[in-house]
């Protein structure tokens, strides 16, 4: 027996998963409220106590933790052209598990500098220009950043020609500067590996301290990564496998939360037809997108707005007034439940389904049709996920969904929207025991056990 | 050290003629230019975005399928809007359908804000000379 604890400090709950790596099996799971404002160990101890009672094991020498408490890893991305380096920077930050507060393009102005100050990011990812390309905008933004009244680690991943200058200028103004490879070294080429690695290291070195999580370091070897990063690790492991153990192939993980919906795809996303030309910035093999307006609880008003309140009302079979009433009640008491739990539950479920549909639509690529003198030619923007055979749902609103299969089906190709490249023929799975992030953590030192447990505990629905 | 000249290359619109594009890429690389080749089916916006990220000196637009006039209209205005007032715009290929006198075609494209216009069969070496000269005089 080799007991391991995987801990996920969420903004609301601290979730603990106890695993025996040798067998491997999940021994117990437990959760308690996250106590970030007092001592974060209180919540953890409470959950731990429960684990000890369930398993009769009191010694847990191996502990790993990830965290999205205290707002997660908050980042700002700065680039030059919105569709190019700004987008590349955003993707690098997202793939490192960060919460991207805002993405900036072109020369920063006073207002934007002020805004960045207000946002108080944990890390800034600063890019612009291909290697050997634009200097003027990047140098101007360097000067702007010198005037900023906020200091945090800053990672420069722009035009390499001026990286020394940028580093010197910023360091002279007390910025802690890291220089890594350009996220877009030439037009449309995405190169985020080094930037992502650097974000992770900076997170380990600084952010854990800044977030008041150091107290737990006494009891845990390390808070290894932001939670979304653990989910990405698990996704990649499950897809590609590990030495001596095959993965399940291309997949998608949809994580519907109260405030946001995350979509992860592990897939090449190359065109499946012959008359298709790929356009735009290269896509990462492991891609994460976050939709801030799609959540089942806190983002419900925005979500309902997006599809239209009448549509929502008709789907759940009630009046527009009732839906508005629910929205108002939720706004005033987001944690409380309505007097009519049946109706709210239905609305929750509908919201989750809409979140799945919209978030996958935005995540997946699409085709544009061009009628040329040589016949029809298609341009593909983004990833072609039509061949993805495994769609996995996680997050409260899906785990507690009354008809999760129907909700996950919303991620599929729709004949009314033929140019969207979503999966055409997938099987659906549910992370019923809420273990994906824990398995991502476990995979660092025990990939084989993590893979076995993922295959076993993600149940087909 | 002399600054390397940076050129953006691509075939505009819904045009998929790739051969000339490859030849120009080769010729300009041999001439010592920094070449960003966007390939075929390139929109005006892609040309401009690439020119901004690369801080390019010249955008070289190819069009072989006869819709060049429609595809190129407004490119100069968009460049000005994007802060690329001083960028050089070249265009070449089968720019219009049918047998139109080249002088007429050239005038049409010069009026649209292009700096140089090339007829079918032009030697790439000629444009290399022009690029060097125009960038220097800019």
Observed structural traits:
heterodimer; A: 461 residues; alpha/beta; Nucleotidyltransferase, domain 5; Rossmann fold; 3 domains; six-stranded mixed β-sheet; five-stranded mixed β-sheet; 38% helix; B: 138 residues; 6 helices; 18% strand
- Helical segment count of chain A: 16
Low-confidence stretches of chain B: none
User: Approximately how much beta-strand content do the residues of chain B carry?
Assistant: 15-25%
Which secondary-structure class do the elements of chain A indicate? alpha/beta
Overall radius of gyration of chain B: 14 Å
Q: How much beta of chain A, percentage-wise?
A: 15-25%
Helix content of chain B: 40-55%
| Quaternary structure type | heterodimer
Tell me the series of helices and strands of chain B, N- to C-terminal: EHEHEHHEHEH
Distance between the amino and carboxyl termini of chain B: 19 Å
Average pLDDT metric of chain B: 93
Task: Write a brief structural summary.
The complex is a heterodimer of chains A (461) and B (138). Chain A is of the alpha/beta class and 461 residues long. Chain A has helices at 40-55, 82-95, 110-119, 136-146, 163-171, 193-210, 214-217, 227-240, 300-307, 309-316, 320-332, 341-363, 396-399, 404-409, 436-442, 447-457; strands at 3-9, 13-20, 25-33, 62-67, 74-78, 99-104, 123-126, 153-156, 176-179, 223-226, 241-242, 245-246, 251-256, 261-266, 276-279, 286-291, 366-372, 375-381, 390-394, 427-430, 459-460.
Write the layout of secondary structure elements.
The complex is a heterodimer of chains A (461) and B (138).
Chain A: E1 3-9, E2 13-20, E3 25-33, H1 40-55, E4 62-67, E5 74-78, H2 82-95, E6 99-104, H3 110-119, E7 123-126, H4 136-146, E8 153-156, H5 163-171, E9 176-179, H6 193-210, H7 214-217, E10 223-226, H8 227-240, E11 241-242, E12 245-246, E13 251-256, E14 261-266, E15 276-279, E16 286-291, H9 300-307, H10 309-316, H11 320-332, H12 341-363, E17 366-372, E18 375-381, E19 390-394, H13 396-399, H14 404-409, E20 427-430, H15 436-442, H16 447-457, E21 459-460
Parallel strand pairs in A: 1-4, 4-10, 5-6, 5-7, 7-8, 8-9, 13-19, 15-18, 19-20
Antiparallel strand pairs in A: 1-2, 2-3, 11-12, 13-14, 14-16, 17-18, 20-21
Helix pairs in contact in A: 4-5, 8-15, 9-10, 10-11, 15-16
Chain B: E1 6-11, H1 19-30, E2 34-37, H2 44-54, E3 58-63, H3 68-72, H4 75-81, E4 88-93, H5 102-111, E5 116-118, H6 124-137
